[in-house]
Each structure stands twice: as structure tokens, then as C-alpha cells.
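TICKET: design request
STATUS: open
ATTACHED STRUCTURE:
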């Protein structure tokens, strides 16, 4: 009888556990384990990396795969043990990302360069063993073939440039471009051969994505060469124009479907490069003018004309990521949003609209005295925001021209000049501030606190080029992200800069 009572008690306790405690444990586990993730067993093969070394996974978000967006997830792990299991969250079933390593001793932050900076494709369920040294990465395990394929494709041998240089010296530009294309064709074919060898071990979707990336990279290399030669002597410029028409009059897309081209990390980036090249260099050639700085309207209209559907929507988004700031394209955000289909790129445009229509006052940054400053402190003042980083030559030139301007407004309580640095290290920033190389003592000097491009004020406005000047109204709204920049030896540029300030006071 006692045995039966004990048994019933045990059953009651088990039922209580299953009903109350076990669900709570599952709920707690769900908070720490992401919905989608890849498992990486890290094996450190260089013992010197067990001190002050980190591994970082830079992941694209929500299928917006491009080099232009700052909207990425970063997962950083300090390397402590020779063997460590890492769980890396991913936002989609198929997720592009980079693997980076760097050394951080608290004073300097040194990135270790990967060969060719491969863009890997992570998938839900991947479980790989990753062997690392300061110079190499190697993969084993489930889906390792995919990673090794991408790494092999990005490790193509360098070509002998002697023949190309010889043609350049002789000013035989048709032959020079022909030699470049021959080398790029050879590299592209080598990549396709590698991919073909791995094809039986890859899913059709992954195979097509890697192929689309290879194709985008190939065309970008051809276009980059023409871009580098268009601002030279007249003969080379004419040959560049002729070569452009020859190379890009028709493009072989290797029967890739729209889904692969849109999802690809590199292909739509290339299409945007092509649009900006045409808006600048080709328009310049056709007009006979030496220099035509293209407007945002030109590139926006060109994209709408030359592309359709979801490819058009992605390339349009890339135009905003790249040029919304220095081409002042924010006035086109609403138009673009209305014309887009219901897709992820329309959602990204909506996010930009929200960021640019919001108030600058919501942001907080530290000054050189360690005080957290709210931009709302400057409410009621016109604000000139200057974004910079140590090592930026253009930032040095701008700072030199800004100093007398800042000094001339020193007694004006209605305007405030604020500098914001994206330096990765506080010590680096403080030295630059004290040297007054990049800013002025009469400016309010603020710092993104080591977050660099991932600080909300940088990420939300999609800042990618420096120096950048914003003009902010007395109500905290952006007036322009492309102020006329004062240039040494051109007093009219100083007048234009000051006039824009004065008319908005």
C-alpha cells in the first residue's frame, strides 16, 4: 500500500514538472537560442590568438544583400579557448555574411585581412568546423563544401600585368582594354570551373547565387577599369567610351533567373555602378563637357527607365543608400516608396523615410570630457553637423576651411557647429581633437563611442562617405545633407556655405 502511495506521489510530481516547470525551461531557452542560426565549432590553430583576438560575423539583414547598406547584424566573440562552439543568429534561411578577425589590445584595433574578403552564404542548419589562424580560414563538416567553394572562388591567382602596362605606355588603348578583358574572362571562367566542380554538392539555389555573385563581380571589374580611365587624356577617354558600348551593349546573364539576380550580394550592386557610370561619364562624353556632377534626379530617372520589377526596386534602394546623403536624394524617398512593389526593398525605403523625417534631437553622443550630450540641448539653434574620421584627407581639408568660418560665427547664439567622429578608438579621437586637425576648439566635438558606422546616427542616415555636412533646422529637422563645401582658393564656395547658413537662421 505504501509502495502504491509513493508511486502516485511520484506521478503527481512528474505531472507538476511537465505542466509547470518544463514549459518555463523551454520558454527560457527560447529567449537565448535564436530562431535561425548556424553552429560553428571554432578551432584556433595559432596559440598567440588566445589573447586580445576576436572573431566577428558581419551578417546582412532580411535579404537586403548589398555592400552599400549599414543595416547589418554584428556578432563578435572574444577568442579565449582553442576550441569553442559559437551560435551565430541569421535573419533569413539563406543569409550572406562575412567572417572577420581582429586584434584589440585596448589601444589599437587591427583588422586581419582575409584574402579577397569572401562573402559567405550561411544557411539554417549549417554546422561547420572552422579552423583559423591570423591569415587563413578552413572549413569542415556539414555544408563545408559551400564555404570551401566560395573561398576557392575568391582565391583566384593574380595575373601578369606586364602586357597591359606595355600597351598603356605605348598608348595602344584598344589593346590595353583587350588585354584587361582577356584576363577577366580567364578569371571568370576559372571561377565557373571551380563552381562546376562543387555543383553536385550544392543546392540549385546556392549554386545560382554563387554564379550570380561571380557574374556581378566580373562585370564590376570590367566597369571599374573603364571608370579608372575616363578622367585621362582625350584618346583614352574616347577608347573607354567605345569599349563601354562594346562590352555592355548586351550582357550574358547565363540563364540566371530574376530571383537569383535580386538575392545576389554582388549583381545589383554592379547594376547600380553601371547606372552611376552612365549618369556621370557617359553623359559627360555625349555633351562634350569635361565635368558633369550627376544629380540624384538623373540617376533615379535612369534606374526607372532601364529596369523593371523587383530588380528596379533593389537598384533604386541602392541609389538611396549610396547617394541619399551627398546627392541630397531625400526628397525622392516618398516618390520611390509609392512606385515600389510590396517587397523588402519598399520596407527599407520606408525605414529611410522614417529616419529622415524624424528629429535629430533623439541622438546622444559623448564629448571629449566624457559627458553624454543630447542633441536636444541645441534645440532652437541652427546646427551644422560635420562627420569625419581620423586618417580622412578630405576631412583635414574641410576642417582647415571650416576653422575661420566657425570663428566668424562664434558670437552668434543662433548657430552651433558640431563635429561627430566615427573613430574606432577613443584615444585616437581625443588626439585628433586636441591636435585640431579635423575639428576646431570652438566646435562641440562628439564621438560615436567606438561604434563607428554602427552608431544609430550613422546607420539611420546611411552615411558612407566622409567628410559629410548636414544642416539642421532650429526644430531639429534636416534641411540638407549636401551643404556646399568650402574649398581652398575658391572664395565663392565659402560664400555659398555661409549664405546657406544665413538664410536659415
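STATUS: resolved
RESOLUTION: sequence designed for all positions
ATTACHED SEQUENCE:
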Amino acid at each position: 500500500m505504501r509502495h502504491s502511495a509513493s508511486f502516485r506521489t511520484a506521478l503527481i510530481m512528474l505531472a507538476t514538472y511537465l505542466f509547470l516547470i518544463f514549459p518555463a525551461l523551454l520558454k527560457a531557452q527560447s529567449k537565448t537560442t535564436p530562431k535561425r542560426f548556424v553552429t560553428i565549432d571554432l578551432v584556433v590553430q595559432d596559440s598567440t590568438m588566445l589573447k586580445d583576438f576576436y572573431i566577428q560575423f558581419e551578417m546582412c539583414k532580411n535579404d537586403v544583400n548589398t555592400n552599400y547598406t549599414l543595416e547589418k547584424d554584428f556578432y563578435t566573440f572574444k577568442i579565449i579557448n582553442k576550441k569553442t562552439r559559437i551560435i551565430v543568429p541569421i535573419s533569413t534561411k539563406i543569409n550572406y555574411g562575412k567572417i572577420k578577425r581582429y586584434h584589440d589590445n585596448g589601444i589599437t584595433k587591427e583588422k586581419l585581412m582575409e584574402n579577397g574578403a569572401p562573402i559567405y552564404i550561411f544557411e539554417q542548419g549549417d554546422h561547420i568546423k572552422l579552423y583559423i589562424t591570423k591569415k587563413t580560414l578552413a572549413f569542415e563538416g556539414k555544408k563545408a563544401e559551400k564555404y570551401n567553394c566560395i573561398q576557392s572562388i575568391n582565391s583566384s591567382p593574380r595575373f601578369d600585368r606586364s602586357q597591359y602596362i606595355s600597351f598603356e605606355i605605348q598608348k595602344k588603348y584598344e589593346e590595353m582594354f583587350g588585354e584587361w578583358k582577356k584576363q577577366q574572362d580567364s578569371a571568370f571562367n576559372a571561377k565557373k570551373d571551380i563552381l562546376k566542380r562543387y555543383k553536385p554538392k550544392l543546392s540549385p539555389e546556392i549554386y545560382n547565387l554563387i554564379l550570380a555573385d561571380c557574374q556581378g563581380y566580373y562585370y564590376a571589374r570590367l566597369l571599374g577599369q573603364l571608370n579608372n580611365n575616363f578622367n585621362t587624356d582625350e584618346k583614352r577617354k574616347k577608347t573607354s567610351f567605345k569599349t563601354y558600348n562594346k562590352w555592355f551593349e548586351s550582357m550574358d546573364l547565363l540563364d540566371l533567373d530574376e530571383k537569383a539576380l535580386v538575392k545576389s550580394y554582388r549583381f545589383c550592386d554592379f547594376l547600380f555602378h553601371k547606372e552611376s557610370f552612365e549618369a556621370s561619364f557617359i553623359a559627360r562624353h555625349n555633351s562634350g563637357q569635361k565635368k558633369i556632377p550627376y544629380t540624384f534626379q538623373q540617376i533615379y530617372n535612369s534606374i526607372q527607365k532601364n529596369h523593371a520589377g523587383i530588380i528596379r526596386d533593389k537598384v533604386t534602394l541602392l541609389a538611396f543608400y549610396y547617394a541619399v546623403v551627398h546627392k541630397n536624394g531625400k526628397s525622392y524617398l516618398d516618390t520611390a516608396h509609392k512606385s515600389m512593389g510590396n517587397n523588402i526593398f519598399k520596407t527599407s525605403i520606408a525605414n529611410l523615410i522614417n529616419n529622415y523625417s524624424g528629429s535629430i534631437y533623439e541622438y546622444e553622443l559623448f564629448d571629449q570630457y566624457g559627458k553624454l550630450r543630447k542633441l536636444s540641448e541645441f534645440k532652437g539653434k541652427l546646427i551644422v553637423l560635420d562627420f569625419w574620421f581620423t586618417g580622412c584627407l578630405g576631412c583635414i581639408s574641410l576642417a582647415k576651411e571650416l576653422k575661420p568660418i566657425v570663428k566668424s560665427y562664434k558670437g552668434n547664439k543662433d548657430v552651433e557647429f558640431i563635429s561627430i567622429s566615427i573613430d574606432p578608438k577613443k584615444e585616437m579621437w581625443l588626439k585628433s581633437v586636441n591636435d585640431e586637425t579635423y575639428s576646431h576648439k570652438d566646435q562641440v566635438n562628439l564621438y560615436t563611442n567606438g561604434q563607428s558606422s554602427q552608431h544609430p546616427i550613422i546607420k539611420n542616415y546611411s552615411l558612407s562617405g566622409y567628410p559629410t555636412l548636414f544642416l539642421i533646422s532650429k526644430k531639429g529637422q534636416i534641411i540638407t545633407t549636401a551643404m556646399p563645401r568650402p574649398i581652398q582658393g575658391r572664395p565663392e564656395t565659402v560664400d555659398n556655405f555661409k549664405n546657406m547658413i544665413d538664410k536659415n537662421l
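CLOSING REMARK: The first strand starts at residue 37 and ends at 44. Residues 14-31 have pLDDT under 50 and may be disordered.
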